[in-house]
Structure formats: C-alpha cells, structure tokens
## 1
Amino acid sequence: MARINFDIAKRLDITCRRGDSFSLELTLKDSSGIPINLHGGTEAKFHMLARESAGSGTIRIHTTNSNFSPGEGSRAITPSVTDDTNSTTADTSDASYDASTAASGVVKFELSAEDMKFSNLNPGDKYWLYDIQYEDATTANQVDSLNNTRTILHGSFLVKDDISTRIATA
C-alpha cells in the first residue's frame, strides 16, 4: 500500500526562563537547502500559539493580529522577517542570483524580559504546548485561492521559574 505524509512539522521542545528575554530565530529552507524568500513580493505570515493544553487550554502566547481570542494575561509576539521587497533568490545556480540581495529565509520571534515575567501567573514552572505556522502568501502557492498554511514547528514550551526578576526603572 502506498502512503504519503503531508506533515512537514518538526518537534522542537523549548525551555526558557521566566523574566528573561526570549528570542527564537529560524531559517527556512526548501528541500534543496536553499533559503526561502520570505517576502517574494508578498511578505509571508507566521502564527505562534502557546497554550496550557491542546485544543481549548488557556492561551499564554499568541501572534499579534492573530485570529485567536487570547484572553487576559496572554503575551503578544510579533514575528519579524529579514527578507524585504528587494530580496531575490538565494539559489546560486539561478541566472538572477545576486549575493548582495539574496534572501536569508530568517524569521525571528521575540518577547521582552518584561513580557516573559508573566506576572499574572502564580510562581512555579509553567508547561505549555506550542506550534508555529508558516503562511505562504505567494499567489502561485495558494490552495483554493487561500494562502498555503503549514505547521512547521511544534512541541512543549517550558517556562522555568526564576528567583530574581528585573524591575523596570524610569
């Protein structure tokens, strides 16, 4: 019997510390190992969600402008893409390749130390589940005239408690 697996998601368990800055940088590449142009005329979209349990658990981290109802105390994370309208192919075998404008395929997810305090939560380690989706807005990759969306990462998101917390000063 033949089978096909459309699940491209990789498991990556994340451990971070409460009250410390959070930064996750990913480089997306195609099956040939070439960085994907995350702009390509239309900037790609990314969605990140961390919640206490799968399905209906309380949302703790959500992407800015997402379709989720995060509720009180959830932290908004804004993905930033390094590619821009001037980015070109990173494929060195392509005739249009230009090293000075080659796409990097880099996306970064960051939360400040202040956001990572999660001051609305009781002390103690927090164990959540998360996933990150990549939404390709390129017209050629649309499915039924909607953006092609794929989960690229998933796993556990452990926020370890910390003894000291940074106090903001004016």
## 2
Amino acid sequence: MKRLFWTAAMVACATVLILPSASASSLIGSTVTGTLYTPDLNTILGGPTTAVVGASTPTFPVGSILGNTPFSINITGNQIFYYPATTVTYGVKPFNGFVFTFANAPTILGVSLDSASTFTPTGIWSTGNSVYLNLSGDSVRSTSVAVLDVQLQARPTPEPASWALMLSSVGLIRAVRFRRNS
C-alpha cells in the first residue's frame, strides 16, 4: 500500500513538472454579449443578446441579435466569424456594427483580421474585455466572411517557488510517515 501511495505521488509530481509553464487560453465556456450599435456607440439598434461560447453553432444565429436581420456570428476558442446571409451595404456612420463583450474569459490583448477573411471591415479593435467590429460603409455579399483573430492572455501557472513548496511538502510528508513507521 505504501509503495502504491509513493508511486502515485511521484507520478503526479512528474506530470506536473512536465506540463508547459503557460497554457493556452480560450474563449470556450465564457459568456459573450453581442450588441448591434448604429449610428454611434451610444445608440443600441439590437440586443444585447447573451450566449455561451461553444454551447451552440453559430453562437448568434440569424435574427438572434436584431429580429430577422440577415447575419450570423460564430465565436470559437480564439476567433469571431461574421457571416452575412444576404448582400448588404452598411450605412456610413461613426459606428455601424457590433460589440462583443466577454465575461469569465481570459484578458483580451488585441484583435486582428485573419487572412481567411473575404472583405476588410472598416474597423476592428478591442478594449478591456470587448471586441468591436465596425462595418460602416462596407458592402458585403452572402458569400463574404470576416474572421477576427482574438489574442488572449495565457492562463497563469504557478511560479517556480510554488513548485518548490509543493515538492518540499511531499518530501516532508514522506519524512513524517517514515518517522512514524520507525
């Protein structure tokens, strides 16, 4: 029984030490609120609508943010996909587009346009836990797609001092058990 206990403890420690120092972050499981704004960021046209990232595809189906507007939006681990369902031209306004605000998500460091996009939106940016997609003046077809790459902060991992403390604790437990058995 003792041998089994110590073998398990050693395997657990070895596994922890082999893991990478920072793990990849993802938006999966976070809560996102999608809101459509026009003519500026002070005027809500549709939404806010809330969904859980990864719970369904698309994250926001046609009509979920604004009645039966012809677009859908899908959010994956680190990308946002905008799919227009028909050909549409967005009016030229200071802001005519979407804001996606995330809760229970890693910190958003930035956003960029992926090369898989078939058109270039007027503007994309991020602040805090929100991503902005401005389509002011853009003409898009039903075959168009905008793919936004969201850069996320890596999940924190324990510092080397924490690993040392954990290993010394295991050693202390072993010493105490050895002393008891003597």
## 3
Amino acid sequence: MVNGVGMNKAGTGGVANKKQCSLLRLEITPDRIHFLKFILEGYDGLALLSTVDAGQGIVEIRYPSEIESDLKKLLQSIGPQIIKNIA
C-alpha cells in the first residue's frame, strides 16, 4: 500500500530484446482518475494509465521496471490527493 492506495504488482511478459514492463493496479477516488492521468503524462515516458473501471476508480499503470522506485515515490507524494475516501 502506498499512502492508502491499494497496489498489486504483476510483471508482464515481453518479446525478446524488448524491455519488460510492470503493472500496478490501483483503486483511487473515481473523480481523480483524470488528475492521475494528467500527472503521469507530464512525465514523458514514465508510465501509461488505463482505466479498468471508472465507476470504482480502478486503474492500471504500466511502466518500465527500471523506474519502479521513481514511480512509487511519485505515487506516494500525490497519494493524499488520489486516495479513495473510506466512509
């Protein structure tokens, strides 16, 4: 967990001579999906965001394995702005 953001990591296979990507699945506040996408797009080549279930706020982030620590630092810093509110 990163600042209350649930994360599951799963490696994805790649073709020989291609860099491997990793996958994070997050559950965030649904109305903050656009914010996270905007932030990730600001870091050219850092990661790709896909929405799995917009109503539930479930997204997947694909990223090069070698930048995992940078991505986690970024997610930790913006975590309070994207965490799903628990009533």
